[in-house]
């Protein structure tokens, strides 16, 4: 069985991190903006296609996908995008029999920074301190989730 995990911070600019052998091996951001002439589902088709590409890049196997579980969005559009990406992700995982788990924001932030409601700046600073160089808070969040997975066995300890 694979020990490769994918961590995601879902959004229009999705942060991602791949963890293998207990360490973060790669990370980045992937935009899922819609174009002027795109239909409403194009963002989600692009996301599904991108997930397929990630799966190929990691050798066709993922032990699990972990994503930031958001319970409240301040903006309606952001909530709609999150919900659509989440539905696409969970269906994609189900089709491939890849386990998936939402990680509450407070859980991974408490693990990384020591405070469940830590600011984006504090999370990014801690991720930087640990030797990573995320381009923005989306990538920093994905790296932090991947670190939580690696350091707690996905919440088992």
Automatic annotation (TrEMBL):
Q: Which UniProt keywords apply?
A: Endonuclease, Hydrolase, Nuclease
| Regions that span the bilayer | none
Q: Tell me the Gene3D superfamilies matching this sequence.
A: Ribonuclease H-like superfamily/Ribonuclease H
| Single GO term (MF) | nucleic acid binding
Q: What's the protein called, per UniProt?
A: Holliday junction resolvasome RuvABC endonuclease subunit
């Amino acid at each position: 069985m694979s020990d490769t995990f994918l961590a995601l911070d879902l959004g229009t600019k999705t942060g991602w991190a791949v963890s293998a052998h207990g360490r973060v091996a790669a990370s980045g951001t992937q935009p899922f903006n819609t174009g002027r002439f795109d239909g409403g589902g194009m963002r989600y088709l692009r996301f599904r296609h991108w997930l397929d590409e990630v799966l190929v890049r990691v050798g066709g196997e993922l032990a699990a996908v972990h994503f930031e579980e958001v319970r409240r969005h301040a903006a309606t559009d952001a909530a709609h995008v999150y919900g659509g990406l989440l539905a696409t992700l969970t269906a994609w995982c189900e089709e491939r029999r890849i386990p998936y788990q939402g990680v509450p924001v407070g859980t991974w932030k408490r693990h990384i920074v020591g405070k469940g409601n830590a600011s984006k700046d504090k999370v990014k600073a801690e991720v930087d301190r640990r030797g990573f160089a995320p381009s923005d808070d989306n990538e920093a969040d994905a790296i932090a989730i991947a670190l939580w997975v690696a350091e707690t066995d996905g919440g088992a300890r």
